[in-house]
């Protein structure tokens, strides 16, 4: 049976079909429709999401990717995705991007693909503000509570200290406000989207960051996500990936000298 295909409902003791979806069946659906790789963390989170699984029925084998927009599947994704992120995460990669920001193609448009709670997109907003560039920054993710936190544009003072990776040159771009710190930069735009099913109106970007996201995906989904993102990258634009990611040789990308984990679109 292909991953995520409809399968027989589990039988309750009465012989009637039990309500809901078992964790292993939900895992197969999330693999096919969101590309999520089975893992102990995902399985644990699914096993802890009993009431959410109870609201789901096995989808047909050919269910479209848009199934994940339905309230019950969206709620399950909210509960099982992993949102670990930080301001200026991998700061040397970010500062290498800052050096190249003024020469990016097009009016600067920057995408944080898999933005979680927004630290990466707000990092980009601060970079653009310091460079004096009126950039448009977009963050996309599947997790709605993370997107709501991202849009709020403030970060808890910790511990851990949310400023711990912010280089000295950018520290004055954040102001303390009670138990929060707020970036002093125009707000990015955040929207819910599946990286396997990018919105048609997403547009083209001078730089796309997809860091620490592909590690959660199956190999085939990683390749598909990268193909889709490269289609949204302007020629001469930059793609920034996580430390263990590498795009396939079939993609029109070459490594960017002096910028870790960064490729330039040919
Ligand atoms: C660990 S966070 C990475 C955050 C940030 N990019 C960083 O490097 O700090 C991974 C994010 O990818 C999102 N994600 C995973 N699969 C996705 C998919 N198919 N479509 C959209 N977002 C996805 C998760 O919801 C999560 O917020």
Please explain how this structure is put together:
- The protein has 266 residues and is an alpha/beta fold.
- The protein folds into two domains: 23-80, no CATH class; 91-265, 3-Layer(aba) Sandwich (Rossmann fold), CATH 3.40.50.
- Helix content is 30%, strand content 18%.
- The protein contains eight helices and ten strands.
- The longest helix has 13 residues, at 119-131.
- The chain is globular and about 55 Å long.
- The model is unreliable at 1-18 (pLDDT under 50).
- The structure holds S-adenosylmethionine.
- S-adenosylmethionine (SAM) binds next to loops.
- S-adenosylmethionine is lined by residues 34-35, 81-85, 89, 114-116, 120, 141-143, 146, 194-196, 211-213, 216.
Short description:
The protein has 266 residues and is an alpha/beta fold.
Tags for this model:
alpha/beta, globular, 18% strand, 7-stranded mixed beta sheet, 266 residues, Rossmann fold, 2 domains, 3-stranded antiparallel beta sheet, 10 strands, binds S-adenosylmethionine
Secondary structure layout:
Layout: H1 23-34, H2 40-47, H3 50-54, H4 71-80, H5 91-100, E1 109-113, H6 119-131, E2 136-141, H7 144-152, E3 155-156, E4 174-177, E5 180-183, E6 189-192, E7 205-210, H8 219-231, E8 233-241, E9 253-255, E10 262-265
Parallel strand pairs: 1-2, 1-7, 2-6, 7-8
Antiparallel strand pairs: 3-5, 4-5, 8-10, 9-10
Helix pairs in contact: 1-2
S-adenosylmethionine is lined by residues 34-35, 81-85, 89, 114-116, 120, 141-143, 146, 194-196, 211-213, 216.
């Amino acid at each position: 049976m292909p991953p995520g295909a409809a399968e027989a409902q589990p039988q309750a003791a009465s012989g009637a079909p039990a309500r809901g979806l078992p964790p292993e069946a939900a895992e197969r659906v999330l693999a096919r429709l969101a590309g999520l790789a089975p893992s102990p963390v995902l399985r644990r989170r699914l096993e802890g999401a009993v009431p959410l699984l109870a609201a789901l029925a096995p989808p047909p084998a050919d269910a479209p990717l848009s199934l994940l927009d339905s309230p019950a599947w969206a709620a399950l994704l909210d509960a099982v995705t992993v949102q670990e992120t930080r301001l200026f995460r991998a700061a040397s990669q970010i500062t290498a991007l800052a050096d190249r920001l003024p020469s990016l193609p097009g009016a600067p448009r920057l995408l944080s693909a898999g933005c979680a709670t927004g630290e990466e997109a707000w990092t980009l907003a601060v970079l653009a503000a310091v460079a004096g560039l009126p950039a448009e920054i977009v963050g996309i993710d599947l997790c709605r509570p993370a997107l709501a936190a991202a849009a709020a544009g403030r970060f808890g003072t910790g511990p851990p200290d949310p400023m711990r990776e912010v280089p000295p040159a950018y520290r004055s771009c954040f102001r303390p406000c009670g138990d929060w710190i707020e970036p002093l930069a125009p707000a990015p735009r955040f929207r819910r989207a599946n990286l396997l099913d990018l919105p048609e109106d997403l547009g083209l970007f001078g730089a796309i960051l997809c860091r620490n996201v592909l590690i959660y995906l199956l190999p085939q989904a990683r390749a598909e996500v990268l193909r889709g993102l490269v289609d949204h990258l302007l020629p001469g634009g930059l793609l920034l990936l996580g430390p263990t990611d590498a795009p396939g040789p079939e993609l029109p990308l070459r490594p960017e000298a002096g910028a870790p984990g960064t490729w330039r679109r040919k």
